[in-house]
Amino acid sequence: MEHTSDFWSLIFVFTLATFIGLGVILRVSRLLHTPLMSITNAISAIAVVGSIIVAGGDFPTEIRVMGIIALWASMTNIVSGFLITHRMLKMFKKEEKPK
Fold first, then answer.
1. d(C-alpha 52, C-alpha 48), whole Å
2. What distances in angstroms separate CA 16 from CA 12, 56, 74, one per listed residue?
3. pLDDT tens string 36-74
4. 59-68: buried (b, 16+ CB within 10 Å) or exposed (e) per residue?
5. In degrees rounded to 5, what are phi and psi of residue 28?
6. Cα-based torsion angle of the residue sequence 67, 69, 70, 73 in order, rounded to the nearest 10 degrees
7. If we measure between CA atoms, which residue out of 35, 32, 43 comes closest to residue 77?
């Protein structure tokens, strides 16, 4: 019985963190998105380490599946963050004119 209550506690924390994170991100000015992306990538890197530990640890199957989902979400966030940042930085690069 204790295992079930732990599972629902983790689901509650995950859902709460999702809504709080979404609320924070939606209120950020467009000028701050590039610095915010680098911070988000750093946080996601920490989440990747934690999710690898959970996914590969000796936990019940439901919790390990949540670890795999967290790993996928964090890696998607990191890769897309780097792609968006690279694209934004390319916009500010000066093109060399041929002589």
1. 6
2. 6, 24, 17
3. 666 777 778 888 888 998 898 888 999 999 999 999 998
4. eeeeebebbe
5. -85, 135
6. 160
7. 43
